[in-house]
Every structure is written in structure tokens, then in C-alpha cells.
Amino acid sequence: MEKLQNQMSFYQLSEISVSYRPKFKASERPQVSTSQEVYSILFNNWDIDKIELQEQFKILLLNRANKIIGIYEVSSGGMCGTVADPKLIFSTALKACASSIILTHNHPSGNLKPSQADIALTQKIIGAGSFLDIAVLDHIIITSEGYYSFQDEGII
Q1: Exposure letters 88-123 (e unless 16+ CB within 10 A, then b)
Q2: What are the φ/ψ torsions at residue 130 (nearest 5 degrees)?
Q3: CA torsion, points 95, 43, 46, 137, in degrees to nearest 10?
Q4: pLDDT tens digit string along 32-91?
Q5: What average pLDDT score do residues 8-37 get?
């Protein structure tokens, strides 16, 4: 009897479903083509009370026309770091059917220079993205006073 119960529980699996219901028509989404436009959108959608307090990592999800599908907060950490898990980044990008992404995080210190960890993470995510055919267009570090674009600086 116990063996039969174990076999029955094996077949009782959770059903996974994915749905996609955008709130805006594709024609109404903002389109980005420069790092300044991306920074402006990010800054206006960032919690200003946390920008100098707590490091946060977010991604901008884009369609093939570089129109923004949405912004997703990957992680929120402390004063000097946060964990950006590539599995969370790409599971979100895949669920949103994003063609490309822009990585972004803030530096509460106000220092715009990327760390070696920032550069290494960016390269790791670019590699994973190329395997999944999801382009990483930029990585932008933001502060309350400005931004740093990996693309503009030739790092990507």
C-alpha cells in the first residue's frame, strides 16, 4: 500500500503556467536609444529615498524595437553591495519575451566608477545572454547626481 501511495504522489505535480498581460500597447511604450534616455527613465522610476542608502540591481526589459517592456528589481542589498543572480535576470527576461536587457544598479557612495566585480558580473551576464539570444545592451550605474554607461565607455 505504501508503495502505491508513493507512486501516486509522484504523479501529482504542480502545473506551471505563464501569462503575459501588458498594461500598455506596444506603440505607447517609451523607446530608448541613448544612455541619457535610459538614465532619465531609471532615475524617474527609482526610489529616491534609497538611492544613497541601499544598493539595488534592476533590469530594463526591451522588445526588438528597444521599447521598454518593464523594469524589474532583481535584488536589494546593503550600503556596499547586492547580489544579482543571473538566473533571476534571465528567467524574468524570458518570461517577458524580452529581446534585450539593460542592466543597472546604483552606488549609494555616489562613486560612478565600476568595480572589478561590476565588470566581471557584466561579462558573465553578456555571455549568458548570448547563449539565450538576449542582448545585453548596456550596464548603467546611477547615483543621485549622474550615471556611468558601460556602453558609452567602451566596456561593452
Answers
A1: bbbebbeebebbbbbbbbbbbeeeeebeeebeebbe
A2: -65, -35
A3: 30
A4: 999 999 999 999 999 999 999 999 999 999 999 999 999 999 998 888 889 899 999 999
A5: 77
Cα distances (Å, whole numbers) of residue 40 to 46, 80, 108, 140, 147: 10, 23, 18, 11, 10
Q: What is the pTM of this model?
A: 0.85
CB within 8 A of 132, min separation 6: which ones? 90, 93, 94
- Residue among 91, 96, 99, 106 nearest 137 (CA): 99
* Distance of alpha carbon 62 from alpha carbon 58, whole angstroms: 13
